[in-house]
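Record type: monomer structure entry
Structure origin: computed from sequence
Chain ID: A
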Amino acid sequence: MSEPREPIHEPEGGLDQTGFLARAAQGGDLARFELLYQRVAPSLYAWASLRVPRDIDSGDLLGDVWLRAVQSLRNHDAVNQEFRAWIFGIAKNVLYEALRQRARSRAHGVRPAIGAGSSLSAGHGIEALPESVTSISRALARDESVQRFLEYCGRLDADDRGLLVHCALEGFTCVEAATRLGITSEAATKRWQRLRQQLREAGWVQELLLPDV
């Protein structure tokens, strides 16, 4: 990220602020990237709490997501791809790697390490993780809206919870989510319509979800 880039000017009120922050971060302004991360951190934290198995440390996993995002930021198309979708793609890849590492460990009769699959658990790059990132995670663990959301998810059945994770957090369509959950597209659509209405009525949850939920 140290290569010189064209000057980035603050956008006027009607322009996309997230896109501006992403371009500024690509120009080497790590503080701008931290602002971007703060915007998506609540939904990433909620996602990790729902998706990451108990024997994989979600804090380490999210730290790894941050590090990988910083390292690959120059490849992010800030004009044509939303930052949230991009970083969630990284998060899913990090989780899949951790799950594969866990499966390999179990196949060889080795107890998987906490945070298995993470470059943080392997001791690589942890010094690059700023205190602000870990403090964000600690704050989110106490955030009332996040906890209410997780409690709400805990009251859902497995299919509804899966739809919420796949559609409201990860951005999959109902058809894609149905395939992952092993239910029909019709059932997924009906369930998701009902869930989405409930979520829209719960104003405290909006900052955690995709804008069109």
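Annotation 1: The radius of gyration is 18 Å.
Annotation 2: The longest helix spans residues 83-107.
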